[in-house]
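Collaborator request, handled under Task 6.
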Amino acid sequence: VVVSVMDVGYQVSTPARVSYAMLEIGAKVSFFIHTHVREDQLDLYGFLTREEKLLFLDLLSVTGMDPKGAI
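Structure tokens returned to the collaborator:
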């Protein structure tokens, strides 16, 4: 998903669920964002509910789980 904030587009990774696929271009939406910072990369992960984000964070605490696997 590309989110536009003050005319700046941000690439945000979201779960592969129907509710995300049905978002319309230009629609106003709020995401719970997790910013994952690595030495050479900054990734944004967005969730429609706080519960989804909390589950994502729980999955990240599992040894060997990376954000792409948790999403």
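The cover message to the collaborator said: "The mean pLDDT is 90. The first helix runs from residue 18 to 21. Please let us know whether this matches your experimental observations."
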